[in-house]
Records
---
Amino acid sequence: MTGAASTAGQATGFDATTPRAALGYSVYRRFVDGIWHVEGSLPLAPGQSVDDTFERLDPLFLETGTTHERTGDTLSFQKEGQAAQDKMAVFDRGTLRVEHGTTGLVLRYRLASRALLFCFLAPLLFLAFAQATIVLGKFEKARTEAKGKKPEVKKPPVVLNPIDKALGAPEPDPPKKKSKKDEDDKKPSPTPGYVFAGIFAALYAVGRVLEDRRIRRLFRKRLLGI
Amino acid sequence: MSGVRVGKRVIGAQAPVIVGWENIPKVQGGPAKQFFFTWFQPTMLFALIAFWFYAPNSIAKASTAIGIGIGFKMLLLGLEWLAPRHDSWRLTWKELTTDLFYVGLGYTVLRMIDGYIGDGAMIEAIQHSFDWEKFAWFTGLPLLVQALMISLVFDFGQYWMHRGMHNWHPLWLAHAPHHYITQLNINKGAVGNPVELFLIGLGVGGFFDFVPRAALLAGSFGLAVGTYQHINVRFNSPRWWRFLFNTTEHHSVHHSQDYEASRSNYSNTWVIIDRVFGTCVDGEAELLGMEGGRPMSVRETMTYTFTEGWKSIKERFGRRPSGNMASAPMVPAE
């Protein structure tokens, strides 16, 4: 377990010292905490020191709205009101630590993103809107039935202007009595709610993978130049 | 920064704004690219008009219009990705997600509320107490005339609502969050406080009885012209286009960090309305937003109108400490 994990464990009051608890913690960390946290590691180039590593990463933490603090081999940062084009805009806080790996120094990072959490929860919100539409629809139906049918506003038949006729526009359909299907079409539909729930679920899946890769690529470019 | 005098105003004294069409950069690249980005806008507009004019009644429906709208926006998102106007306006995952959240609100909860208190509900309430056959003459006009009238009447209403938002503090409080956007992308038009989205959607179009096809034709102007207000793509818009229609350039001036520039180009589709009322500024800006480009979070966007409204009410009607009048910060509505 990394130091960052221990810190997170302490923060949540979770004792991960027993094997069973450790397993539970890793499941929690992967499937719950992992919803809005991105973590990873990057082996550093041979001979690259801790100071050199943080010096290369430093410009990333000089962006507007970013504060950072370095103590020894650990850098922690916080972002508030980050600019849209900030390369780390999707993250709000995080910790980067240089540790000794099996083959040399390794940069380990753990970053939190409220945007990912928001996107993960957004489908629930839109599903709630869809359900609210259904409930309101039922309420409206009962109210309309209690009130009785409104008199229809009589509309004269529409005649196409001769210019449009000459240009070949199709004649409009003659006015027909409103059918039940027409009435149903006018009722608020839960479909947009379901569609947006699906869109945000897809956006979350894409964002979780994309932002993970993007930050890894960004760190690699800064540290190794590739 | 000295700025440029436009009529009685000095534009660009607080933040960089390019004034004058002759100073705006053109699309760079080979002849094929230049041809595409010169003719794309008029071709799409005329193609849409022809489609809605000749489509059979079974196709000329609102559901088709929604489908075309989504497809067109996807195409424009692709153009933003392939040929961005400014790198500083690049659409990121976070920006796209945030923008789509507001779009989603518009299609769901706002539509629900609008059904009860929007213009449609208001018009329906009074339609039963008036002889609306007096307006039937409208349906006898040529389709394109009807479409132009619907589009112009709606845009005329939007112009004054928008101008009101920049000149009357209570309305400004609803509109201000939209001005905190720092870049223009396809869905940025939806970003804002729900109160504003409700207000800007109010129109008198519902009073007119028109051929449904005319409404679909009028929608073509909104889709194939109004959409370009918020887009990160550079087009070589023809001279007649930029004279009649609002463009990305016009709208970027409206969103610029320069106070005077932000009080221009209020129309949604027909910038000629701005020309008539003397509020048009031809130009463009890259540096957008308020308070030096401070981004506004979703939470603040949702609450700003109410929290700032409460503060304003307290300032105006609450007890003031005697002899100590704190000066309020200058905002565009003052």
Note: The two ends of chain A are 28 Å apart (CA to CA).
---
Amino acid sequence: MGAIKGFAARIRALLFPRTTERALNEEIEFHLEQETEKNVRLGLSRDEARRQALIQFGGLTQTREAHHDVYAARPVEELMADTRYTLRTMRRTPALAGAAILTLALGVGANTAIFSAVNAVILQPLPFPKPDQLYMVWEENPEKGWYKQVAAPANMLDWKQQVGAFADVMAYSEAFGTSTLLADGEPVIVRPAFGTGNFFSVLGVRAALGRTFLDAETWRTGQRVAVLSHRLWRDRFGGNRDIIGRTIQLDGTPVQVVGVMPPSFAYPSENVDLWQPWAWNPNNRQQVFFRRAHWLKVVARVKPGVTEATANAQLQAVVKRLQRDYPATNRVMGAGITPLHEFLVGDTRLPLLVLLGAVGLLLLIACANVGNLMLVKASDREREAALRLALGAGRRRLVRQALTESLVMSFVGGAAGIALGWWGTRALQAMQPAGMLRVSHFDFHWVVLAYVLAITTLSGLLFGIAPALWSSRRSPQDALKEGGRGGSQSRHMRRWGERLVIGEVALALMLSVGAGLLVRSLLQLRRVDPGFDPSGVLTARVEIPGARYDTGEKANAFFARLESEVRSLPGVQGVASTSNLPLENTGYSSDFTVAGWPEGTYGTEVLHRRVTPDYFKVMRTPLLAGRAFTDADRANTQQVVIINEALARKHFKGVDPIGKRIVFDKNPDSTSTWNTIVGVVKSQYQTKLSLDPQIEVFEPLTQSPTNGLAVLVRTTGDPASLGPAVRRVVASLDPTIALASMVTMNQVRAASLARERFLTTLLLLFAGVGLALAVVGVYGVMAQMARRRVREMGIRLALGAQANDVRWLVVRNGLRLVSAGVLVGTVGALAATRTMRALLFGVATKDPVTFIGVPIVLVLTAVVATWLPASYASRADPATTLRAE
Amino acid sequence: MQSPSTDVLRGTLDLLILKTLALEPMHGWGIGQRIQQLSRGVLDANQGSLYPAFQRLEQKGWIDSEWRTTENNRRAKYYRLTAAGRRAVGTEAASWRRYVEAVELILQTT
């Protein structure tokens, strides 16, 4: 109790110093009165009595001071005094303070923005209950080079039933393209995700309105149902609660809306507009395709307390059994699990960590710059420090004051940095390629604030160390001796400056090399010939409702009419359609074998694409051999395919593929369809420019119809300007068909490079800022050195040195430091860029062009940065400098 | 100082204050007078040094203070021993005695 009261008294004294002081004064006054009274009683005059009382009491001031010291208030008071002092000096030297704060704000702001993304994507758990119980279950097939791939439905159902460690297993797919929603008003394109009936319950989420799926709805129940995203409900149905139970048309099929999800739910991605249960035909369960076709993403929730190892071991046992029981489909099918969060973060982790490293380097450069500013300031004030030391100030007190100044500076800079970072976070969200960061909204989070606080404090200590040590190490005699005239710079001071230059150059070099590698990589990617000519081509995805276009003939007739109508538009050179756009997505892949191959040999993973006859002409993809498709290739004529160059090279070495017959099955039987190869075309890049083209076959649309195609229009003028006309054609043919946004093939190509461009742009930006800061820093140090050597230069000039010699002297000194920095930075960059290997294309991590080019640029900029101070020094007027003695 | 009194040894002032307060609550001046009287004028605490000592003891939780009115109708801050303070008198006094004995032993042998 007593101790608590004592502590309370301490706090009171700190918070209400006046009250405490008044109480003490009253107490002392009482004491003195008593003593005076006593003395009067002993016979002294009143004045003398008072005087004796004061003598008896001892020094009043000492007592007050001693009383004050007993409270722990002193350090706090000093801190507040130092803070006030710092803020005052900052106001007095606004240029210096502004430069330091701006520099820090840049460093902290960049870190805030990038760390916000890292926090949202990597550090924050998934927004589901008990997210660490969720695992992605994937399949692998070494024979086909599949790794962490989508699973077959029958396998998924077996895992669900047989793996005891799994509480439940659900599956979903978002690879269904788009659907056309017809409710009231215009038809719109929506993006559906399909899942098993327990899709929501495994994740542990509830509907905001209505219900989610029922487990039984995995299978066909008669009524098709859908759950809407909050966004679709709000934008399309005005947030009307009557939506529950209403029937809407999806691709011409009536679907009942049973629920609306809360706005926070965005799985598997933020693009999903609505979720539908698969409603599989129960007979599928026994069909072989149910185990052969792999297309599901599978998520399992393990039972409480089950470890990853246990769950995986049990899964492996089931996998072994399936391999034994279903050799035709599962002989080489493996499976495994990865924590869901880790799986989803996937290949976003490396770019984000590289960016985090880059902004870390940027902050270090900023700290070096501010450190130099503080050092210059400290050296300008060294006489003050020396005087205070001579007058008996403690060294620790001086160090503490210097550190307080740095910390105050860093906190002001940090606050500005948070503001900048908030803006940067917004910019990052807006700039990111669709879906790259998995989350598009990340707001300030306490983890981010804690991180910013930590780096701000660390920065303050980091750039405060030099000035702090500086002010404490000085011996008063030296400082006062040389302080009289802005004398030659002390060795200690100069060494700090040199270290800063070397450090800044090294850091800037590391940043620039990283950015340089990415730029080179991006340039290499842009140089890749995609196998088609993307300029002048407009594309639009058209989905026709399967309910009305229920036969291949009807669908083909629609697309034939569409193509002919568009062809007659002015400015159109050619029209074609394809099931999948190159550089956007691929269709399905299959095994295959060729007539004449030895029994049992087959190839795997050949991609399939459907095209209309003019496809290769419109895309300007060269035909290397044979013929293109023609209108004569019809459903009832010979089944034909065209293969790409990659397939011809890989499987028809030294053999003419034209006329060979191919079948898409590894064990063809009497029911298999044999196709005749009629042509070979140059390979088109199917997914990304960084992945070599895969083997692929093209089928004529007439022989394998579909309800969804991308229409390609080659134009003479600007392709985008043709958009409205194409839209009118579609509407005139069938007003219930919605057209997704139209893009040019150049945009498709650019979108395929969006991630690379995003990362390169950011790193280039950071490297640019870092380089600018480093140059300013080098200039600052060199200018300071030159200023300190003006007298020396004046003497040299007086003794007959030429201005050029003097300039060279300063520049040489600068070059020496910059070279040392380049050396250190190169070693650092060699180590750091190794982590970037997976992000580079066609460029080695030790790319000589980058590793030679960047240092040259750096040295040249540094020469400029040292040249200005050098010419200042060379203009020193010998007469003036010497007279100043 | 001209008085023949002895300055109170550093560190013993706290014990003297505690011992004095063990009799009854008292104000600062009174405590100073009492120490002087009880030591028959030998110990004359520097009166100014009493007040920091009060703060120290208060923070340790050994004494407590409150403002009261004296018999002359004057406001004064009275100090009194807390329970912890009462215990401390015993231990502090014991350790002081051990110290004195030790010094005495040394003085006798030389």
Note: The interface with chain A takes residues 27-30, 32-33, 46-49, 51-52, 55-56, 58-62, 64, 74-77, 82-85 of chain B (CB under 8 Å).
